[in-house]
Write a structure and sequence with these properties.
single chain; mainly alpha; 3 helices; about 45% helix; about 0% strand; elongated
Length: about 130
């Protein structure tokens, strides 16, 4: 049997600028270290009294219940606008625009009230016309 010469492989060349890969990705942390403790809300850094958070600012009224009630009145283009204002108020609050949420909620309230009044006028007129005809 003749021995075939083994091709010699060169060792991989490393650039001196690149660091060697770590043995394991989490080897830099101690096994018992509490990593979640830094993210805990009870840390003194997280509890600053000067910062306003969403819990500090109360949610403005969006009058969703009123706009849903106004949808039962026969003034459909107007009560749909009130419903859209109410939903936009909720979305503005969720995005952090508190003043815009308050303004849109106020608009939803007045448009819903106008829709209910117009709907009651339409119902009254239709009842008067229906019951006065022979």
């Amino acid at each position: 049997m003749s021995a075939q010469p083994q091709p010699q492989t060169a060792p991989p060349v490393r650039s001196s600028a690149l660091p060697a890969p770590p043995l394991s990705p989490m080897s830099q942390y101690a096994p018992g270290s509490d990593l979640k403790g830094a993210l805990d809300s009870s840390s003194p850094e997280a509890n600053t009294e000067d910062d306003k958070t969403e819990e500090d600012i109360p949610m403005p009224k969006n009058y969703l219940w009123l706009t849903i009630v106004s949808c039962f009145c026969p003034a459909y283009p107007i009560n749909i606008v009130a419903l859209v204002f109410s939903i936009m108020s909720q979305n503005s609050y969720n995005e952090g625009d508190y003043e815009g949420a308050r303004r849109l909620g106020r608009n939803a309230k007045w448009v819903a009230i106008a829709s209910i009044i117009i709907g009651l006028v339409i119902i009254t007129i239709s009842c008067v016309v229906h019951f006065t005809r022979k």
